[in-house]
Amino acid sequence: MQCSTSFFTPLPTITPLHNHNPNHIHNYQHFRTIKSFNLRYNIDDVLLHTESTSSTPPKIPKLITSTSNPFVKHCVKLRQSSSYRRSHAFLLLVGSTLIRELHEFHVSKRDHETAIECLILLEHAEVPEGLGEIPVDRVYVSSLVMRKLAGVQSTESIEAIALMRSPSSFVELNDNQSKIDCTRWFGCSSTHRILVLDGIQDPGNLGTLLRSALAFKWNGVFLLPGCCDPFNEKAIRASRGAPFQLPIVSGNWDHLEAFKNEFQATVMAGHPDSSNDFKPVYKLSQGLANSLTNTPLCLVLGSEGSGLSEMAREFCELLSIPMAGNFESLNVAVAGGIFMFMLQSDVPDEITH
């Protein structure tokens, strides 16, 4: 899908409600190649334009009942198109549970600058539990519009949608940024455990891997070329919103090599075979995991169809999961969960005792 070069068509210039405080912006924001408006939508401008073209329009309620509304079309494109999301640096989060959990995450981090721009709610319905305290604009829509926005046939399970800015914890690196200070790519002091995904194209698998990485307290995720968008609607559902809580960096093998050298990290790749003519394949075991506890580690997982790329096999040490059953390999999301559980640096006491 071709990316539109305008924000809304044919909307007038959108009036900022306020400027962002630069102190709240991620300290590595300048690495991002996507465009960021650094302003908030003035929803009144959008609605005034769509409801009336007169110079002195009447008071307009924040209600949309037509799927032809430009704001609705814009939001649908955000849900459907990766290039459109990146060009506008906005996305949709569908479902009150995901929105509430994201808000609770920001509150727990004492992050006063919410990423949510506005809440889209069903008309004549109560505000879902936990969303009433979110201090953002609200747009009420008909059930027809809600179905269009959410991409579902029924609104029974869809009570709310959030329009939100792309998280500043998501960073895209240019090809010429391989020698830049790697220590701040993930925006945290600890980069002890990094999950590296090589050509993972299925959004369900990618989302599940992100969710597991967050559950086992891995410090971030590095996306190599060929991976699907982590903010794809299916990936977000499978991840249960993990991309908003986990630092994610998108780059290439040169960037990963620079990161490896900076942190003297061990880079291991999951491999389905316990024997390989190319190079030795280590077997995952508790002893091996214990030997890596204090070692910075990057775990590389290959694509669902073709497995590890040639570059991954050359660049990484290979690691397999011993299996007693008569299967050659596991689904990448299942294998990744096992690897991340065994190789997590903060192993719960109940596992080791």
TrEMBL record:
Superkingdom of origin organism = Eukaryota
SUPFAM superfamilies given in the database record: alpha/beta knot (SSF75217), L30e-like (SSF55315)
The UniProt transmembrane annotation reads: none
* UniProt KW keywords: Methyltransferase, Transferase
Q: Does the keyword Transferase apply?
A: yes
Q: Which is one GO molecular function term here?
A: RNA methyltransferase activity
A Pfam family (short name) is SpoU_methylase
Q: Which residues form the tRNA/rRNA methyltransferase SpoU type domain?
A: 194-341
What biological-process terms (Gene Ontology) are attached? methylation; RNA processing
UniProt keyword Transferase, yes or no: yes
Q: What is this protein called?
A: tRNA/rRNA methyltransferase SpoU type domain-containing protein
Originating species? Saponaria officinalis (Common soapwort)
